[in-house]
Amino acid sequence: MHISVLKEEVVQNLNLKENSVIVDATLGYGGHSSSILKRIKKGFLFAFDQDSEAIKYSTNFLKTIGTNFTIIKSNFINMEKHLTELGIKEVDGVIFDLGVSSPQLDEDERGFSFHKNARLDMRMDKENSLDAEKVINTYSEEDLTRIFIEYGEDKYSKNIAKNIVQKRQEHPIKTTMELAEIIKNSVPEKEKRKKHPARQIFQAIRIEVNHELDVIRPALESACHLLKVGGRVEVITFHSLEDRIVKKYFQELTKIDEKVKGLPNIPEEYLPNFKLVHRKAILPGTEELENNHRSRSAKLRIIERIK
What pLDDT, in 10s, does the model give residues 39-67? Predict the structure, then answer.
């Protein structure tokens, strides 16, 4: 079952009106979209996802609420292009939920989890030609080390990459359990007692397969460009790499030009077009943390166009 993270906080901070036009850049299984659709009876919802199964499920789910929505099968980096083609030049809000949805993790055959045995896949879009098996069996030791360090922030990256390359010389590595076992055997005993040693490496491979970090900044630029005055962009992140990109971009958009900083009366043209709605990220409350363990690393950041 998929439980949307920070659902109440997302909806409350969107400043929804009956006629709002909203973009859910990461539809998933429709948790956020369904809450939004209930509140915009005269408005419209545009939603994006790459996963055909999620789109099929959400289409049926959202139809029980209303018909004022369109789902587009595409990566959110293409948001502005698709909306322009549909004649949409501005919107009242955009939300991004950058996590992998629970059903994707729970479906054994998708290969996202190191707890269940499956083919090494990890594609959010099943039409993607790059999958986890290809990464593990064709990337050089240097490239594997690089993605494990950059995307997994794992201190045993070098050793794990070396052992993967050695093992695949005997035979191709094809399953999640096989890979998890190699990772486990590549780290010291004391590390295994803290947490599963495959967690960060599987995250790194998933990010590589789906180009997850590459698309965040350009998609945020599109979202902010589409915003009406008073409109908001909300982003939920689940690890430090995503959050760093979002935080840095939002800071850039909301800072005052150094040339005029500190002046008693700053001319309008030097003031930023955006403001942070909350100075710090919103975190899940105690109740949500108890009910949904996957929310433990979630952070919500919100920016608003003010001119």
Answer: 999 999 999 999 899 999 999 999 999 99
Structure tokens at 264: 């008693």
State which of 182, 210, 238 marks the end of a domain. Answer: 210
Angle at which helix 176-184 crosses helix 199-210, to 10 degrees, equals: 130
Q: What is the pTM of this model?
A: 0.89
The least confident of 109-118, 129-138, 200-209 is: 109-118
Tell how strand 227-237 and strand 91-97 pair up: parallel
Q: Give the position of tokens 């990010």.
A: 207
Last residue of a domain, which of 161, 179, 210?
210
Residue 119 burial by CB count (10 A; 0-12/13-18/19+): exposed, middle or buried? Answer: middle
Q: What is the distance of C-alpha 5 from the center of its chain?
A: 12
Residue 91 and residue 226 in contact, taking contact as beta carbons nearer than 8 Å: yes
Q: How many CA atoms lie within 13 A of 190 on its CB side?
A: 1
At 104, the pLDDT band (50, 70, 90 cuts) reads: low
Residue 208 tokens, joined: 């590589």
Q: Which of 192-198's residues contact partners 24+ apart within 8 Å by CB, and which partners?
A: 196/114, 197/156, 198/114
